[in-house]
Structure formats: structure tokens, C-alpha cells
Design brief:
Radius of gyration of chain B: 17 Å
CATH architecture of the domain at 28-93 in chain B: Orthogonal Bundle
Largest interface: A-B, 11 and 13 residues
Oligomer: heterodimer
Largest sheet of chain A: 2 strands, antiparallel
Distance between the termini of chain A: 88 Å
Number of strands of chain B: 0
CATH topology of the domain at 28-93 in chain B: Helix Hairpins
Distance between the termini of chain B: 59 Å
Number of helices of chain A: 25
Order of helices and strands of chain B: HHH
Order of helices and strands of chain A: HHEEHHHEEHHHHHHHHHHHHHHHHHHHH
Number of domains of chain A: 3
Structural class of chain A: mainly alpha
Helix content of chain A: over 70%
Shape of chain A: globular
CATH class of the domain at 28-93 in chain B: Mainly Alpha
């Protein structure tokens, strides 16, 4: 049964190859869509089978390694293409293939009529293949393959409509295309990948192996706790995670990634790929547990990202941009959970977030579809009656992300906040709590402006509900968003926190190395829970109060908060700061120093100089070629006489 | 058989060769230069034959036949070149034939 994991990975690859090679020839949306979604559907079915098998067996027998073939063998260094099927990776596989399948089905409706239909499905399948490699790999190198692969797919899909204009907001408005957004995502990700690579080299020099089992089982012996070595390894790994999972300082690519088609935003930039960093940190939990300093950095970066992204989300007018900042913010929560040692809570939030964020994005896609490519929420409103299914599911997702019990977001977010309170510091909890309020506010600002009130769109726009192929995935995801949290009901609420127990064997090694936090009492937990519900409700209340009124859009509102509004609208000028501090100096030094200085001066100079030197010497030496044959003969004779003389007289 | 000793042959050969070299270096008439080259070839032939007889080994003589055969062909080509040159430049003075240079 566990060997089926090979097929889980292979089938999306086959889907990619078939659609990639023959999609254009087939020229049939039906067949391309069927192959694309079918491949992921089969993969999901197989992973469900493995999951059921795992449930049946005892906890100790749930981890299996399936070796497919030997990939690299150089001396003592070997890397296998081998897959690790265990509680963590199967959970991720279920999320990826499950949510991925729904998004594939949705895309059949969303991409209908696009001339690159087959190409889109080929890319999506390639993405699923790479992502499965990332989460199922049993060594760092194969994980890195998936890591780079999803980066590539992200690039391809952000730039899917590569000739369209894309407005990045405050920064150089209107001057960029989606291809620029794709390039930005790729370059920023490369910075993170650099950290991952260096960390991998360091791990190899210490352990002599890249297989997870070798590294993690010997980590405690070989890496001194809180030593500088483990600090740097984990910090560099975390740099990789910040790139992929859009954390400070490398979050800037994700909002621009909204240039891609909406299902891509749902699949890659919300539900799955961006959680790769969270997964990687969780997978390497033992290394992080040995480096308390890095853990602290992870938690601080996480909470800072959660807070700042939420504030930036407050003022966005593009429906997808709001969701993008919300994604960055929620990812920040996940890293906060990981950073304080609540690895299971981080993964729990990955799962619930995948459900409701995919739902939000798909809902946004349905709205954009209905509004004929309009994305500005100032030009929407009153869509509740026009799009009944979309609006209902969207409301469910919004309530779930806001953290109103008993929807899924409440349990996972509260678990993280609780861990932050008991194992981290009260400060983390306070910022996280405020962020929860901001989340509620910007989500319901979005919902109210989009669905509530009266329509502000032009009269010639006639919004219509999406076809069934798009609404059914929405309904399924809505059900998951409601029920998804029940796998992690904490004991204080009478639950068993099944997901934490499920993942316990994975984090066992890490957990014993963590500092013991103070046991919070049930009463404290109840208090914190009710506080977060209160702030969430308050956020919803204010958002509705401010934005439900007629024509009360963000532009009129901004007048009263001009300074701070400008700061948020320009996203704290982070893009401008990076541009001034990093991009422009690099471009300038490349031009003045590397190009005109080194390349033209030194390299071209050396090449042209040697040619000139040869020409100059030749201009003198060629005089020997006088054309007087007897001169040559004389030189010949003299030469022979000299040589003979040397030979004789020696 | 008391014959001419080897040294005499070698000396004669050396003298002939030197005359040839000096002729090649100093004369201006292409045909004479050409003849001097033939003289050098034949002086070497003389050396070969002398050694062959002295050592009782026929290899040298065979080599001489080859040299003569090649020299015959070479002289045909050489004379043809000289004729072609004369037709073009109305001279066989090699001082005036120096266009093959920088």
C-alpha cells in the first residue's frame, strides 16, 4: 500500500507530459481539463488510501520510506529518490492533492475560453508533481528539487498572461506587466533558495548525508545545543522559508503574484506552495529545537509579518490584494506557532488555512468572473443577491479566517495564540490578538464592499453566478472550512486535539528539546479564547458599521487618516526602500563597475590588448619576410652552420 | 683493390656542396641558382654512393636512385616555373622577383 506513493507522484507528472506535449494538438478543453483534474484526483484517492491504511496501523508503524531509485552516487555520498510517508507528509499530501483537485475542477470553468487552456493545466499538474516531491522527499536534495520546481511553476503561472499589464499599486503604477511580477517572484525566491542551499551544504559537511533520518537522528549528538553551527544552519533554512512563505523580509513578491490567474493564486499563493516554508521548518523541527535563538527569530518574524501584513491589507482595494496580504499575515501566524515550539499548531493552521483561503480566492475568482475582470472592490457592492452561492461560501470563509467558533480558523488560530502565550511571551499573544482584530476588520471590509450595500458597478455589467463546475468546489471547501477545525479541538473544550496527537511522533524529538513553557490553566485559556472572539466580533462590527453605509468607500474614508493611510497604501514603502537600498545600487554597480569597469575595462581590455600587442610585435617582425629568396637561404645556411658549430665544438 | 680512399670522395663532395651553396646564395640568374641546387643534390648523392661502396651496403645506392628520380621530376617542375616566370616578367633575375613578402 505504501508503495502507491510512487504513483501519487508519477500520475501528475504524466498529466503534465500528456497535456504539455499533446494539449495543443488535442485542442479540446474537455480532454485537457479531464486529464489535468483526473491526474490530481487519482493522486488524492491514492493518498486517501494510504492515509486510511495508516489510521489502521499502530502509531509506531506509520512511518515508511519508499526508495524508488538511486539518484546520485559519488564516493561515499549518495542520494536516493526516496519518499518518506509519515503522519506529517501524508497530511500535506492530502491537503495538496485534495485542495488541488478542487481547484483543478474549478479551473475548468474559470479558464474556459482561454487560448492557453491546455498549457494552464500542464503547469498546474507540474506544480502538483513538484509540490508532492517537496513534501514527500526523504532527503534535503529531493526536497530542494521540489522547492525549486514549485518556484518555477509559480513563475510560469504568475506570468501566465505574460502580455497583460499589471498594477503593482503605489510602486511604479501601471509600468509593469505580469511578466515583471513573475520575475520579481522568481528573483526574491532565489534569495531564499540561496539560504536553503548554504544550509544544505553545512548539513552535509556536518552529517555527511542529506537524508532526513540520518540528519535528524544524529542531530542531538553532532550539533551542540544553542551552538553557533546549529544557529546558522537553522537561520539559513529559515531564510529559505521566508522566501517561499513570504515572510519579512522577503514577502514582497506575494502581493504581486496576484497577477496570475485566480485559481493559481488559490492553489499556489494561498493554499499550498507558500506553506512549503512552514512544512520545511516543521520537518526540521529537531534542528530548530536545538537553536533557541533561531526559534526566537522565527517567532518574531512571524508575528511581525502577521501584524504588518494585516495593516497593509486594511487599505487595499483590489479584491485579490486584500487576500494576498491576508495570506502573508496568516503565514506569519503559522511561523509564530512554529517559533514558539507549537509545531503541530503551525501545521494545523496550514491545513485550515488551505481550506478557507482557497475558498476565499476561488470565491474572489467567481466574483471577478462575474464582474468581467473587474477587481476593484470600490466598483462592486450588492453582489449578495446576484451571486448567492459565491457570497454564502465567501461569508463562511471570511468567518472562518476571522476566528469565530466553531469554524475551523478559530481552533487553529487560537491554538497558535495559546502556544504563543504559554511557551512564548505575553507580548506575542497581545500582537497576535490585535492582528486577529485587524484580520476581522479587513476581511469584513472586503466582504461588505463586495457583497453588501448597493451595486456601484456600471449599468452595462450584469453579474451572474458562476457555472456549477466552479460553485461545487466552493461548496466543498465551505464544508471543509466549517468542519476542518474539529480535528484539533483542544482538551479544554472537551476535544482530544486529534491532529496534535497524530503529529506527535514527528515532533517527539523536537519537543523533548524545547524549553518547558508554563502550563496555562483552563480558566486562562477560556479567558484568552473569549478575548479573541470579542476582538474578532469587534472587528466585524466596525467594518460593517463603516463600510455598509452607502458610498462609504475607502477613498472617502482615507481623508480622515491621511498620513497613516498613505503609509499603508504604499505598503510602508518597503518596495521603494528595497529599490533604493538593494535594487538600484546593484543595478548601478553592475553597470558602472561590473559592466563598464570590469567587463569592458578588464576582460575586453585583456582580450583586445593581447590582440593589439600581437599586431604591434608583428608589424616589426614581419619585415623578416622580405621576399628575397636568397635572404632566406642565407639565413638557412647561417642557421645550419651555427647549429653544426655548436654540435661540433661542444 | 687499392682504390681512392673514402676521404677523397667526401672532400670532393663537400667542395661541390659548398660551391652549390655559394652559387645559390650569390648568383642572380634563376637558372644558375637552379643548377647550383642540382649540384648540391648530386654532391650528396656522391657521399651516399661513396659510403655505400665503403661499407658494402647497397642501401645508399638505392637511395641515390630515388634522389635522382625525384631530382629529375623536380628539375622539370623547376624549369617550368622559370619559364612561366620569364613569360610573365621578361626576366629571370631573382632580385626582381620579390613580390611574395609582407
Amino acid at each position: 500500500m505504501y508503495n502507491y506513493v510512487t504513483y501519487i507522484i508519477l500520475i501528475p507528472l504524466i498529466g503534465f507530459i500528456v497535456n504539455g506535449l499533446f494539449g495543443k494538438k488535442l485542442n479540446s478543453e474537455k480532454i485537457s481539463g479531464l486529464i489535468g483534474s483526473g491526474a490530481v484526483g487519482i493522486a488524492f484517492a491514492l493518498s486517501a488510501l494510504i492515509f486510511i491504511e495508516m489510521l489502521k496501523g499502530p502509531a509506531e508503524e506509520r512511518s515508511h520510506i519508499v526508495t524508488v531509485f538511486k539518484w546520485i552516487a559519488a564516493g561515499t555520498f549518495t542520494v536516493d529518490v526516496a519518499y518518506q510517508v509519515d503522519q506529517l507528509s501524508i497530511l500535506m499530501t492530502l491537503i495538496i492533492t485534495g485542495v488541488g483537485f478542487l481547484i483543478h475542477v474549478y479551473s475548468i470553468g474559470y479558464m474556459h475560453g482561454d487560448h492557453g487552456f491546455w498549457r494552464f493545466f500542464a503547469y498546474l499538474n507540474l506544480f502538483i508533481f513538484m509540490m508532492l516531491n517537496l513534501v514527500l522527499a526523504n532527503n534535503f536534495l529531493l526536497m530542494f528539487l521540489g522547492w525549486e520546481g514549485v518556484g518555477l511553476c509559480s513563475f510560469l503561472l504568475i506570468g501566465f498572461w505574460h502580455d497583460r499589464k499589471f498594477d503593482t499599486g503605489g510602486y511604479k503604477p501601471g509600468a509593469t506587466t505580469t511578466a515583471d511580477a513573475a520575475k520579481k517572484a522568481f528573483v526574491v525566491n532565489r534569495i531564499g533558495d540561496f539560504g536553503f542551499l548554504i544550509a544544505m551544504f553545512m548539513i552535509f559537511t556536518v552529517f555527511g548525508s542529506l537524508a532526513f533520518e540520518d540528519v535528524f537522528s544524529r542531530a542531538i549528538g553532532l550539533l551542540p545545543r544553542d551552538g553557533s553551527l546549529v544557529f546558522w544552519i537553522t537561520l539559513l533554512l529559515f531564510l529559505g522559508a521566508t522566501g517561499k512563505s513570504a515572510q519579512i523580509p522577503l514577502f514582497i513578491w506575494l502581493p504581486d503574484a496576484m497577477a496570475g490567474p485566480t485559481p493559481v493564486s488559490a492553489l499556489i499563493h494561498a493554499a499550498t506552495m507558500v506553506t512549503a516554508g512552514v512544512y520545511m521548518v516543521a520537518r526540521c523541527s529537531i534542528l530548530f529545537a536545538l537553536a533557541p535563538t533561531t526559534m526566537m527569530i522565527v517567532a518574531i518574524v512571524g508575528i511581525a509579518t502577521a501584524f504588518f501584513a494585516a495593516t497593509m491589507g486594511l487599505v487595499q482595494n483590489d479584491i485579490k490584494k486584500v487576500l494576498a496580504y491576508s495570506t502573508v499575515s496568516q503565514l506569519g501566524y503559522m511561523f509564530l506557532g512554529l517559533g514558539v515550539g507549537g509545531f503541530a499548531s503551525g501545521i494545523f493552521h496550514v491545513m485550515t488555512h488551505a481550506f478557507f483561503k482557497a475558498l476565499l480566492f476561488l470565491g474572489a475568482g467567481a466574483v471577478i468572473h462575474a464582474m468581467h475582470e473587474e477587481q476593484d472592490i470600490q466598483n462592486m457592492g450588492g453582489l449578495k443577491s446576484k451571486l448567492p452561492i459565491t457570497s454564502k461560501t465567501f461569508y463562511i470563509a471570511a468567518i472562518a479566517i476571522t476566528g469565530i467558533p466553531p469554524l475551523s480558523g478559530f481552533f487553529s488560530k487560537d491554538e497558535i495564540l495559546w502556544k504563543a502565550f504559554t511557551q512564548g511571551s505575553t507580548m506575542f499573544w497581545i500582537v497576535g490578538w490585535i492582528t486577529a482584530g485587524l484580520t476581522a476588520f479587513y476581511m469584513f471590509r472586503l466582504v461588505t464592499l463586495t457583497f453588501g450595500g448597493e451595486g456601484r458597478y456600471a449599468h452595462n455589467v450584469h453579474p451572474h453566478e458562476a457555472p456549477k463546475v466552479m460553485t461545487i468546489p466552493l461548496i466543498v471547501l465551505a464544508v471543509l472550512s466549517i468542519l476542518g477545525g474539529f480535528v484539533g479541538i483542544p482538551s479544554s473544550l472537551g476535544g482530544s486535539n486529534a491532529i496534535e496527537h497524530w503529529l506527535e511522533p514527528i515532533f517527539q524529538r523536537a519537543n523533548v528539546n524545547l524549553p518547558i513553557g508554563h502550563e496555562g490553566s483552563h480558566s486562562t485559556e477560556y479567558l484568552l479564547m473569549s478575548l479573541s472572539v470579542v476582538i474578532a466580533v469587534a472587528g466585524i462590527f466596525f467594518a460593517r458599521k463603516i463600510y455598509a453605509r452607502k458610498l462609504q468607500t475607502s477613498s472617502t474614508r482615507s481623508a480622515s487618516f491621511r498620513g497613516i493611510y498613505k503609509l499603508l497604501w504604499n505598503k510602508y514603502f518597503v518596495d521603494e526602500i528595497y529599490d533604493a537600498v538593494v535594487v538600484r545600487p546593484v543595478v548601478r554597480s553592475s553597470e558602472k563597475l561590473l559592466w563598464k569597469g570590469f567587463d569592458v575595462g578588464v576582460i575586453d581590455g585583456a582580450v583586445n590588448g593581447s590582440a593589439k600587442l600581437t599586431a604591434w610585435i608583428s608589424s616589426w617582425l614581419r619585415k623578416i619576410q622580405s621576399g628575397v629568396t636568397q635572404g632566406y637561404a642565407l639565413a638557412f645556411v647561417v642557421g645550419i652552420i651555427v647549429i653544426l658549430g655548436i654540435l661540433v665544438l661542444r | 683493390m687499392t682504390s681512392v680512399p673514402l676521404q677523397y670522395y667526401l672532400l670532393l663532395s663537400a667542395i661541390l656542396f659548398t660551391i652549390g651553396v655559394i652559387g645559390v646564395l650569390t648568383r642572380r640568374n634563376a637558372i644558375i641558382v637552379f643548377m647550383c641546387i642540382e649540384l648540391m643534390l648530386n654532391s650528396v648523392n656522391l657521399t651516399l654512393v661513396a659510403f655505400s661502396a665503403f661499407l658494402g651496403d647497397s642501401t645508399g645506392q638505392i637511395l641515390v636512385f630515388f634522389v635522382m628520380a625525384v631530382a629529375a621530376a623536380e628539375s622539370a617542375v623547376g624549369l617550368a616555373i622559370v619559364i612561366a616566370l620569364f613569360r610573365n616578367k621578361q626576366t629571370v633575375n631573382i632580385d626582381e622577383i620579390n613580390i611574395l613578402k609582407w
